[in-house]
Amino acid sequence: SVGGDLAFNWAYSNNGARIVLTGGRLSGADVNDDNTHGLGNHFGCNPLTGVASSSYKTMWGHEISNIQDRTSPTLVQGTDHGTGSKYISGPVYGNYAIYVSEDASSFPGPGHKLDIEIEVVPKYKFF
Fold first, then answer.
1. Taking the alpha carbons of 27, 29, 31, 32 in that order, is the dihedral positive or negative?
2. Which of 40, 73, 94, 122 has the most crowded Cβ, counting Cβ within 10 A?
3. Confidence band (pLDDT; 50, 70, 90) for 8?
């Protein structure tokens, strides 16, 4: 398990990831090491323009990979990935969701059953 804050649209060389944890491996802007992993991974593209290489859909596509400190092979969750030889199919650890709040100072811990709305203790009280 890795801690850290969420970082969005992490672009590096010809790769990118939509959501990563800052406690994981974050490759530098000019580093082409395929070593930043998270949700919405894109290898073989221009992450600043969104234009994928011609082989992207068949070879380099993958959505979820585990945070890891290695460039090859890449352990991805499930079998929904491209044909690139560097991918290893792995277990799927569950569903993912991101909850945001302007008011909450904490979030219910593991085992708490979530609903469409949850009760929170406001972070700030305005009178």
1. positive
2. 40
3. very high
